[in-house]
Amino acid sequence: MRRILLCLCFSLLSGCATYKQSINDGLDLAKQGEWKGAEAKLQKVLTGSQDQLLYYMETGALAQNQGDHQRSNDLLEQAERLSDTFFPTNFSNRSWALLSNPRQSDYRGSGMERVYISYLKSLNYLALAAQAEDPATQRQYRDAALVEVRRIDIKLNEIRAQTPSYQDLNAKENQAFYLKALSWLGNFYTGGRDTDQYLYRDDAWARYMEGLQYEISGDIDDARISYQKAANLYQDGYAKQYDLPMITAERAWLDTIRMMQKGGFSQDEIDVLIKQKLSEPYQTRLTQYQEHDSELVVLEHQGFVPDKNEMTLLLYADPNAYSLVLEPLHTGGQRTANDSFRWFTMVYADINPLNLIANYKTGGAWGTVSGVFTKRVILGRSVWRQLNSVQLDSLLTEQVIRVTVPYYPPFTLDQGRTTLQLNANLSSKPSDSVRMTSLADIALQEQLAQAQRDIYEGMIRELLRSWLAYQIAANVEDEGAKLILSLIGQVAVFASSAADTRNWLTLPAQVRLTRTPLPAGQYSPQYQTNTGTFSMGEVQLQPNKITLWNLRNPE
Q1: Residues of the signal sequence (predicted)?
Q2: Is the C-alpha dihedral spanning 142, 148, 151, 152 positive or negative?
Q3: What is the mean pLDDT of residues 314-341?
Q4: How would residue 427 be classed by pLDDT, with cut points 50, 70 and 90?
């Protein structure tokens, strides 16, 4: 009876419903701009202790979209504390996740998400400063925004210390052939792929926003340094990595040069930089900034980062080659099957020589070709003996094991033109908006970087769960009961396999920047995209002041 009870408990482990299925209602409301309704839905779903960080991040972002900036910061501050890099891992929590599914472990957030907690908080403080009436309160909020800017800097410096820089990647491309070969040979268990190129190593847009906030606060030299860091990152590889236009670097260099002009740098030094870094259109734009001009800065936070799907892989043994083989199980309709297969081919399929040889030995010429549709994990004879000693080889030859991993389906970003109308009596004109970052691409590439870890962790987890169910049934003497328990265990393990598809879904997919120097005065700005028009209302632009419009476009 104890064994039967254990098996029944095992079958009740959660994992059949994915994170995506649980939050779709709230996310659908958010995509319609129904921020309050979306928050209410997500609050009901993200109630578990393992989702506490997600709760504060999602509700904090939605509170900002509602204009409730103080409440947003209260929620995001809770997220800040939970996302601390040194947040301890609970052993029992991780053990339970290993026996059930990774959805049961505490969500810890990605490096990008930790940076954008402080990013959103800094925008909240700027909004509170703009709403404050007395100068002392305004300065207090701007100082608080600068605290968040420094937090961004600390977090990015920590990430930089743990990842190769763009200069390191460029040096790798230029190194001798034999060194490239050695590096490639060292990547067998990452599928022969260099995952370094997908890592989130720094954030040019976050650096640029540091510069903007320093400029708003009047810290000209700090603004220059941050703008220049952003410009170097854009041109060294950030724009290329995340499929951004190269004018992102020009935009950052233009603002660097403006700060140099304000900071008293020599005209000769400025002229050299203008000639080296700015095209003729941007040189003309630089002249539009007059000494007493004000400036309207529009930040369009557009769309939502994509949500992850689950891919099912079937794991079985190939004793002749002392290896395990994984191949995708196509479910969910033709489109989903095509998306998952493309991801599998891109990330997991056998392309390195050892796997090609093993596939050839077991299946001839067709076996080599079929490696495009499978992933082979070569264990070797000694490891296979270890599996034999614990009867895992018998388990793998008697049944197929389901392994579930997360993946991103294809997505497209809005790259249409935008227009900015400053007053009702003025005609609309192209706003010269620039796509400064793509959080969607950052999230996608972070998943690519950890994809191999996900598949090996998933494989180990499902082997352990299947082995436990197998041992429970094997220790029953009655053949009829053994057969029933074995069937129940296989079905329970197969059905409860799940991947961790959680991420911060209310973050924007991309950010577009529009900076327009204007004479001081009263304006009624309207910003138009291909999906709608947004109005800022009446605004008074002050001389030598930057007015920031943080615009959230859900479509």
Answers
A1: 1-19
A2: negative
A3: 83
A4: low
Instruction: Return the pLDDT at 507.
Output: 97
At residue 284, φ and ψ (nearest 5 deg) are: -65, -40
In the prediction, which pLDDT does 353 show? 52
- Longest C-alpha distance within the chain, in Å? 92
In whole angstroms, give the CA distance from residue 351 to residue 195: 15
Burial of 420: CB neighbours in 10 Å, binned 0-12, 13-18, 19+: buried
Q: Judge residue 6's burial from the number of C-beta atoms within 10 Å of its C-beta, 0-12 exposed, 13-18 middle, 19 or more buried.
A: middle
Tell how strand 309-318 and strand 323-329 pair up. antiparallel
CB 371 within 8 A of CB 323: no
- Strand duo 419-421 + 429-430: pairing: antiparallel
H or E element, residue 26 = helix 19-31
Under DSSP, the state recorded for 284 is H
CB 412 within 8 A of CB 273: no
220-230: pLDDT as tens digits: 999 999 999 99
Q: State the average pLDDT over residues 31-57.
A: 93
- Which letter, b or e, does each residue of 323-332 get, where b requires 16 or more Cβ atoms within 10 Å of its Cβ? bbbbbbeeee
Paired strand residues for 207: none
Residue 421: strand pairing partners: 526
Structure tokens at 504: 């911060």
What pLDDT score does 2 carry?
Answer: 45
Chain centroid to Cα 388, Å, comes to 40
Pairing mode, strands 546-553 and 294-302: parallel
Distance CA 552, CA 169 (A): 35
Beta-bridge partners for 523: 539
pLDDT in tens, 106-134: 888 999 999 999 999 999 999 999 999 99
**Could you tell me the pTM of the whole model?**
0.88
CA distance 508 to 359: 43
SS3 content of the chain, % helix, strand, coil (to 5): 60, 15, 25
Q: What sign does the dihedral 402-406-409-410 (CA atoms) show?
A: negative
Percentage of residues in the chain having pLDDT higher than 90: 53
Tell me: the pLDDT tens digits for 148-164? 999 999 999 999 998 88
**Would you say residue 271 has pLDDT above 90?**
yes
Tokens of 554: 């859900």
H/E stretch holding 484 reads helix 479-496
In this structure, what token pair is assigned to residue 494? 């197969």
d(CA 540, CA 520): 8
Contacts of 451 (CB under 8 A, 6+ apart): 195, 347, 348, 405, 407
Which residue, 346, 362, 342, is CA-closest to 354?
A: 362
Average pLDDT, the chain: 84
| Sign of the dihedral through C-alpha 275, 280, 282, 284 | positive
Which pLDDT does position 392 carry in this prediction? 77
| Mean pLDDT, residues 251-263 taken together | 96
